Amino acid sequence: MKNKIKLTKRIILTFSLVLIASFCNGCGSKDTKTFREEGIEYYKSGEYDQAIQSFNKALNADKGKVGDIQLDILKYRGECELRLGRYEDAKKTYEALIIADDSKENSAYYDELKKDLDSLDEIKKAVDELEQGKYEEAYDIFDSYAKLDGSLKGKLAWFNKGVCAEYMQRYDEAYELFNQYLKVYPEDEAAMKEINFLKTR
User: Which of 93, 11, 12 is nearest to 52 (CA)?
Assistant: First the structure.
């Protein structure tokens, strides 16, 4: 019975991946790996909309195949959606990832991820406060979740806590927050841009 449920979930996921990416046109002769690399470059340069388009094309290129590379693409796409504040889209992407990867070695990570997804609503509230210029209120919410423990909510909250400190002109604090962040996430280009800006303040 469990095998049947897993198979059904995988069929649903495969259909969903095809459906999600089906709007992508002009894929030409590019393959999944090429679109993935293109998406990563957009991601690194902070062009998250373009990155999502490339990641969708990468998923479309394999017509619903589910393997390690597709799981990696979903992780990147979810990160882009989070950076754009598209929390509902990010939830769907991560939920698809959880269904797709039924490997036991990742079960603890996905259990934690499920908890993180439940916290995204609170993070969204804080982002809304930030966008309205209520920096102190947003800072306090982010501060309660900010941890460099590898969790999704911790990472997102820490980054945005640094942004709040920067907006409040607490530049030394913001610099230290992003500096600590980069020790854990050294390839985060957006954080590097923040650090470079703060060096000029």
Answer: 93
